[in-house]
Amino acid sequence: MNEITLLAIDLAKQVFQVHGVDARGVCVLRRQVRRAQLLRFAAQLPPCTVAMEACGGAHEWGRRFERLGHQVKLIAPQFVKPFVKGNKTDRNDAEAICEAAQRPGMRFVALKTVDQQQVLAMHRLRSAAVKNRTALANQLRGLLAEFGLVIFVLRSPT
Q1: Torsion sign (Cα): 127, 129, 135, 141
Q2: Structural domain boundaries of the chain?
Q3: Which one of 28, 58, 70, 127 has the lowest number of neighbouring Cβ atoms within 10 Å?
Q4: Vertex 113: Cα angle to 10 and 53 (nearest 5)
């Protein structure tokens, strides 16, 4: 079997579709791998480039693959979509990820560290809390207005 130089993985919840090509770009591997078997499967491969869509869980998987000696490339989903052939299936998505990763001008997403992801999570949580607080205050003002209680929000001049 030809050595895999690029392995594209379509991430999912339980069953992942993998698509591997050799140095000439010829497909040498196309199969499904269960979540519990994915790391073991990747550990058996010689170091290669692993390409995935940048989605939920991709950064964690990317860090795991890097620890195994693979080079990881994450691609934004909007850059993969033009390469999907036919209907959207996991198999077609994995092949499209592989095609996109081989393009010379492709832009990749940087793999985030755990610390970077934690900071982003805190920013998202704070943003959601502020949005919820504003929505609740507006709803309360609206309900009170139905009973004739009008609340004016005073803003300090800036």
Answers
A1: negative
A2: 6-102, 113-158
A3: 127
A4: 15
Share in percent of the chain as helix, strand, coil (round to 5) = 45, 20, 35
Give Cα separations from 143 to 131, 138, 146, 148, 149 (angstroms).
18, 9, 5, 9, 9
Cα(112)–Cα(120) distance, integer angstroms:
10
pTM: 0.83
pLDDT in tens, 75-114: 999 999 999 998 889 999 999 999 999 999 999 999 999 9
E-assigned strand segments in the chain: 6-10, 15-21, 27-34, 49-53, 71-75
Scanning the structure block, which residue is given the tokens 């010379």? 104
**Contact indicator for 123, 112 with CB cutoff of 8 Å:** no
Tokens of 68: 């195994």
Distance CA 13, CA 90 (A): 12
- Which has the closest alpha carbon to 30: 39, 38, 19? 19
132 backbone dihedrals φ, ψ, rounded to 5°: -65, -40
